[in-house]
Write a structure and sequence with these properties.
This is Solute-binding protein family 5 domain-containing protein. One of its GO terms (biological process) is peptide transport. It comes from marine sediment metagenome. The chain has three domains: about 180 residues, Dipeptide-binding Protein, domain 1 (Alpha-Beta Complex); about 45 residues, no CATH class; about 45 residues, no CATH class. The longest helix has 14 residues. The protein is built from seven helices and nine strands; from the N terminus they run H-E-E-E-E-H-E-E-H-E-E-E-H-H-H-H. Strands 3-4-6-5 form a four-stranded antiparallel β-sheet, covered by helices on one side. Strands 7-8-9 form a three-stranded antiparallel β-sheet, with helices on one face. The protein has a two-stranded antiparallel sheet with strand order 1-2. A hairpin with a 3-residue loop joins strand 7 and strand 8. With about 300 residues, the chain is α+β, with helices and mostly antiparallel strands. The chain starts with 10 loop residues before the first helix and ends in an 11-residue tail after the last helix.
């Protein structure tokens, strides 16, 4: 798990980030249609050519007590451009990891950064100036790397870039519904309810994200009541969970995850690639590996 939203690239880190930080926009996961909604912005803004202007909420504070405003937005987006080395100012020893992997999302294929600059118009109004028109700019602002950071806690080029090793309740500060308590590497991370949350505080006082690497142990913990929520339970446990009066099994329906085998076109010509594709036992994969919880894409 990484403690820096602008370096995160895995689902475990995202689960952690959603408790602490928030972006200007988000997707409403409580609605089956998953519409985009405003979070720290009050509206979706206005466009003037390559410029996107938005108004910010005025009733939001970071966990540290820092007030959220336009300076928070500029700090976050300027730092993002720095960590992606779009500015060209990043020195060899300026960060622990060097150029952030998320740079591929915030730049065009030719390397041109999506965002040129962030302009503060007033305490609660900012303008994003893009280098080119970018159709998915709003969705990009929902990503973890675009979540707002507390400029009073960290320097521009000095953040928690070494995983969770430096994370403490004093060095982790967001605007989200939970505050950071502690992390025990490979064991668990605990959060406490943000009593001053700008929306209604959570009904849950404590959240513990536990690490249980063994699949059988995870599912057994759910059946025994040792954990309260288990994401993506093993299909082989479905019947047992359905018959357990203390367990409610929610089936979310089809997902968007695609699993595939990539082949190097320079090493394997069309004939070889076709032969490999025809040699795969798709029914075995679907019935035994995926346990009936997947469908086959169009393929040979």
């Amino acid at each position: 798990v990484d403690a820096d939203p602008q370096y995160m690239w895995d689902s475990a880190s995202f689960d952690y980030a959603y408790q602490i930080w928030e972006g200007l926009f988000a997707y409403n996961l409580s609605d089956p249609d998953v519409p985009m909604i405003t979070k720290l912005a009050t509206d979706f803004g206005t466009w003037d050519g390559f410029e996107h202007t938005i108004t910010l909420r005025q009733d939001v504070d970071f966990h540290s007590g820092t007030h959220f405003n336009a300076s928070s937005v500029k700090f976050t987006m300027d730092r993002l451009n720095f960590l992606c080395n779009f500015t060209g100012d990043q020195g060899e020893d300026d960060t622990a990891y060097g150029e952030s992997i998320i740079a591929v999302l915030y730049s065009w294929p030719d390397g041109m950064p999506v965002l040129n600059e962030t302009i503060i118009n007033s305490e609660y109004n900012v303008t994003f100036v893009l280098n080119r028109q970018y159709g998915v700019w709003l969705p990009l602002l929902t990503f973890t790397a675009s979540m707002m950071l507390d400029y009073e806690v960290w320097e521009d080029d000095d953040y928690i870039t070494e995983g969770m090793s430096g994370a403490t309740s004093e060095t982790i500060s967001g605007t989200g519904p939970f505050t950071f308590d502690y992390n025990i590497a490979g064991v668990e991370t605990q959060f406490s309810r943000n009593e001053d949350y700008w929306q209604t505080p959570s009904q849950i006082e404590k959240v513990v994200i536990a690490v249980i690497q063994d699949s059988d142990a995870r599912n057994t913990a759910m059946l025994n009541g040792d954990v309260h929520i288990l994401d993506a339970p093993n299909p082989s446990y479905y019947d047992e969970m359905r018959s357990n009066s203390d367990v409610i099994l929610y089936e979310a329906g089809p997902g968007t995850i695609t699993q595939y085998m990539g082949m190097n076109n320079n090493l394997y010509n069309f004939t070889w690639r076709s032969a490999i594709s025809f040699a795969v036992d798709y029914e075995y994969l679907l019935d035994n590996i995926m346990e009936g919880e997947a469908v086959r894409l169009k393929s040979p």
